[in-house]
Amino acid sequence: MTQPRTLYTKKKGSIAELVLNRPEVLNAENRQLVNDFHRALDELEAAADLKAVIVTGAGRAFCSGIDLKELSAGQIKLDWFRRTDEAVRRLECLNALTIAKIRGYAIGGGLQIALACDFRVSTPDSHLGLPAVLEALIPGMGTYRLPRFIGLGRARRMVLTGELVDGSEALRIGLVDWVAADHDLDHKTQALAETALRGSSTVRGFAKKLVTSSFESDYDQAFAAYLDYQQQSLDSEDHRRTMMEYRQRKK
Prior knowledge:
Elements: E1 7-12, E2 15-20, H1 31-46, E3 52-57, H2 68-72, H3 78-92, E4 97-102, E5 105-107, H4 109-115, E6 119-122, E7 127-129, H5 142-150, H6 152-161, E8 164-166, H7 167-173, E9 178-179, H8 185-195, H9 201-212, H10 219-235, H11 237-250
Parallel strand pairs: 2-3, 3-4, 4-6, 5-7, 6-9
Antiparallel strand pairs: 1-2, 7-8
Helix pairs in contact: 1-3, 3-4, 4-5, 5-6, 9-10
C-alpha cells in the first residue's frame, strides 16, 4: 500500500505551497518526510514559471522538529540528519521567493526550515526555538544560520538552553519578519507571495544568491559573483522588457 505523502506541494499559477502533512504529530519530521521533502523540491526546482513558495504545516503547527518516537526507537541515524540538512539547503537555494507561514510550533528542524526561507511570518502566540540539547542532540545547521539572524549572544542563549520564544519576541529579535493575527496570517502571507509577481524573478533570483552567500564568501568573491550576475541581468529578457516599458511610459 502506498503511504500518504507526509509533505506535498500544490501550485496555483506562479505561486506554490509546500505543506508539511503530519498534523497528528504536529508535523514532526520522520524518515518518510525527509524523502518526501526531497521529492517535493525536485518538483519545485523543475517548475520554470515558479515565482514564490509558501512553506507551511497542516493543522495547528508549522513543524515540531524531529519525530521523537522514531528517534527513541533508534530508527534515525546520522544519514537522516545529513539528508534533512541537504533538503533545507535546497530550499534555501531555490530561485523563487520563499515564505514560512508559522502557526503553533516551529521548533528544532521546523525552525531550521523557517530559517532557510527568505521571509518568516508568524502568529504572536507561536513558539520558536532549537531545543535539541534537551534531547542530547546538536540542532543541525541551525547553529550556523541562527547567529546570522539574531546575533551570536542571543543565538548561544537559545541553542545552549533550548529556550523557546513566542512570535512577538521573535519579531523583536529579528527571528521573524512579520507577526499577523491568526485570522490574518493567510492573507498576509499571500500578499507577500504576490510581491514576487512584480519585477524580475530572474534578477530577484540572482540577488537572492548574492545575499544568501554574503556570510559565506569574502568581498572579492562576492564582487566577482555580483558582476557576473549583473551582466546576466543586463542581458536578460526581463531587463529588456522593463526598459522598453520605461521608455513607453516616458513617451
